[in-house]
Amino acid sequence: MSLHLIALTTLTLALPASNQAAFVLNGTWRSAPDEMRLTSAFDESVWGKDAKSIRTVEMTVRQGGEATLTITRRVVDARGRTVAGSTSIERADLSIGEVESTMGVRAEHAVTVKNAERRYPDEPEGTWAIDGLKVSVTTFTDDPGMLEVRVDFPDGRGSFWEALHRGGARKPARTSS
């Protein structure tokens, strides 16, 4: 077991600095669904009683630090069915570079947004560029299976941060009542 760790450490140290971030991040990262109940009178008039807004985030990082970030938002009704016309998909092509700064276990990576758009799958002509989108990626030395993505939209609305986990979302721990 320790030979594998030594080999992995040696391989990581042998990589040029510009490829180390890509080596660590390669793969698919996903968030747990972020659900928010829509309870205002306006929300209920539009989406129906007991509707929920759901956001999921996925990022695929390829060799060399090239990445695709996909944010999917939708509204589901009380029965869990997606409400027609409620789905939007934001997609950004990124380049993730070297660590720019560290603070404790946090390592902030250089990120360049090359292209970003929002589309509405139910509306064929519903695609718009998102100029000025900012994305940051943070990794953690104490948890290599998790990273944090911060997404800042140019108008400030809808900005968020989300924890992503390698290969898929971790399920929340169950608590006993």
How would you characterize the overall build of this protein?
The chain has 177 residues and is α+β, with helices and mostly antiparallel strands. 16% of the residues lie in helices and 48% in strands. It contains three helices and ten strands; from the N terminus they run H-H-E-E-H-E-E-E-E-E-E-E-E. It has helices at 2-14, 17-25, 41-47, and strands spanning 27-30, 34-38, 51-61, 66-76, 88-103, 106-119, 127-129, 134-140, 146-152, 160-166. Strands 1-3-4-5-6-8-9-10 form an eight-stranded antiparallel barrel. Strand 3 and strand 4 form a beta hairpin. 16% of the residues are buried. Mean pLDDT is 85; it is low at 1-22 and 173-177.
What's a quick, concise take on this entry?
This protein is 16% helix and 48% strand.
What are the defining features of this structure?
8-stranded antiparallel beta barrel; 10 strands; disordered N terminus; disordered C terminus
Q: What is the topology?
A:
Layout: H1 2-14, H2 17-25, E1 27-30, E2 34-38, H3 41-47, E3 51-61, E4 66-76, E5 88-103, E6 106-119, E7 127-129, E8 134-140, E9 146-152, E10 160-166
